[in-house]
Amino acid sequence: MSSASGPTFDPALDRAYDARGSVASFEAEYAALVALSEAARRDIPVERDLVYDDASGMTLDLYGAAPDRPVMLWIHGGYWRAGNKADNGFAAPGLVAHGVAVAVMDYSLSPDAPLSEIVRQVRQAVVWLARNGASHGLDTRRIHVSGSSAGGHLAVMTLPTGWHEDAGLEAGRLGAVMALSGLYDLAPLLRTKVNGWLDLDPENARNLSPIHGLPAPSDAPIMLSVGGQETDAFRDQTARFETVLAARGHGVRRIEMPTFNHFDITGTLADPDGALTRAMAEAIKEITP
């Protein structure tokens, strides 16, 4: 294990990965997202607290379910140790306006759950939607996935195909994947305070890094974005992952968001005309006409 309190702790690297410290007022940024989430629950029909994983008891909220609507799973950030589905309802309004239902999930948080278990739960949410979405009227030919920050990492951890077979998920069921401000190579985090709760060693960090576990290319688009006002570390994570995806032949698309930071970039999903909303809606229509 490389502990944040141990000799490999790097204060400069820690600052580079300090998402909260990259904005003038985290409290104000988060309050704005909570307000958008509260509005979503007022304005959109939502089925709450649907258990998607019997083993952990974790649940999701399903916004805007209607006959034959495709569905996107949204995974919140919070460095794997914070956040909840209630405060992430903001991810729903934009896509619901385009005729796409949105499932917003909770997952067990670190350090109570190891990162491998969190990854398992996210994958199980995909399986649950594939198996049970039709009973809510949804078009489950493809399950689309998106997330931000730690949620961006978790979103792309649905890409490797080995787990699909183990879970009995048919080939081709995963749809468009969009990751915002994601963490794709976990090795740098071994030298930050983040590893104080993740408790990763170099081997686990590599095994749980999407940049090292990519599947063969498919027809499902992968979209990446990172705010232009984010730290160099977060922008570098996205740039390096995009390069690796392209080298492997994936149809990766970059959505430029130059004026946004690590937090307000996610709030744009509440806007039907936002660049991220439109990119996901178009990608979903492209592969599930």
Q: Tell me the quaternary state.
A: single chain
Helix proportion? 25-40%
Per the principal axes of the C-alpha atoms, what is the gross shape?
Answer: globular
The CATH H-level homologous superfamily: Alpha/Beta hydrolase fold, catalytic domain
At CATH level 2, the architecture is 3-Layer(aba) Sandwich
Average pLDDT over all residues: 95
**SSE succession:** HHEEEHEHEHHEHHEHEHH
The number of helical segments is: 11
Query: Beta-sheet strand percentage?
Result: 15-25%
Instruction: Write the CATH fold name.
Output: Rossmann fold
Report the structural category.
alpha/beta
Which structural traits does this protein have?
globular; single chain; 289 residues; 8 strands; disordered N terminus; AB_hydrolase_fold; 17% strand; Rossmann fold; alpha/beta; eight-stranded mixed β-sheet
Layout of secondary structure:
Elements: H1 11-16, H2 26-43, E1 46-51, E2 59-63, E3 69-75, H3 93-97, E4 101-105, H4 115-132, E5 138-148, H5 150-156, H6 162-166, E6 174-180, H7 195-198, H8 202-207, E7 222-225, H9 232-247, E8 252-254, H10 264-267, H11 275-287
Parallel strand pairs: 3-4, 3-5, 5-6, 6-7, 7-8
Antiparallel strand pairs: 1-2, 2-4
GO molecular function: hydrolase activity
Keywords: Hydrolase
Protein name: Alpha/beta hydrolase
